[in-house]
Structures are given as C-alpha cells and as structure tokens.
Amino acid sequence: MFIRSHSEKDTYDAAKKFAAGLFGGEIITLSGELGAGKTIFVKGLCSGLGVKDEVLSPTFTVMNDYIGDKLKVYHYDAYRLFGGDEAYFAGLTDYFGAKDGVCVIEWAENIAEALDGLETVKVEIRYAGETEREIVIE
Fold first, then answer.
1. What is the per-residue pLDDT across 12-26, written as a single tens digit (0 to 9) for each?
2. Which pTM value belongs to this model?
3. Which of 9, 38, 56, 94 is 20 to 30 A from 130 in CA distance terms?
4. Contacts of 113 (CB under 8 A, 6+ apart)
5. How many CA atoms lie within 13 A of 105 on its CB side?
6. Tell me: the pLDDT tens digits for 44-96?
7. What is the dihedral of CA 90, 93, 113, 70, to 10 degrees?
8. Of residues 58, 52, 55, 44, the one with CA closest to residue 107
9. Does residue 69 sit in helix, strand or coil?
C-alpha cells in the first residue's frame, strides 16, 4: 500500500485508518529518517485503537504500553539498542505476537535479529518534500 501524506494530520489519519484492520498479534516495524513522522504514525494508530492516553516516544524508556478499546499497543523505540540480544535480555521480545495487542517498533532495524523468523508488517516513511511524506506499507 502506498500513501502520500501532505501533513502530519495526513500521516496521523492514514495510521488511524490502518489501525482499523488490526486484530492483535501484529508486529509492525517503522523505518524512516529522524523526523520523518514515525511517532506521528504511532499516535494515529493508537487513536484508531481507542487509546486515550497521551502517546509519547519511548526513546529513553525503550517501550511504552497503552490500553486501547480494541487492543493494547506496545510501542518500542529501538534507536538506542544495539542488537537483538539486547532486546531479548531486556524482556522486550516477550510481547512480540501477543494476541491481545499490537507491537509497533520504531528503528526496528537495530534489533533485526530479534525479529528473524517472525511475520512483520513493514511501514516505511520517506521524505518527499518539506511537509510531504511517502508511506509504504508491506
């Protein structure tokens, strides 16, 4: 799926719509440069799943979890991690595939080994201008 976003609101709304198709157990990897809109995407996804809490990037906590009306959201930021073993030993992999929730992992490439053999939904957000983004969902 390809989406052209012209603003943060477009990215948020696209993720909110995407969330309607989630049923639990999904592992969603987010990639894109700093500032591309990964956290905005997560905020929209959480809104689509009925999360009422403020959604913040877990850059320093590595993972935040949120309870939605439909599913839980396990929001990871692997920017500061250095490999799958680090994610595993921190207990972060315990939620991968949890049927009562969705895992959303920013900077998933940093813990790629922990995701080996798991089915993932890949979301890439690319710059296409100052405020425009290309969102590719596979």
1. 999 999 999 999 999
2. 0.95
3. 56
4. 83, 84, 85
5. 26
6. 999 999 999 999 988 788 999 999 998 999 999 999 999 999 999 988 899 99
7. -140
8. 58
9. coil
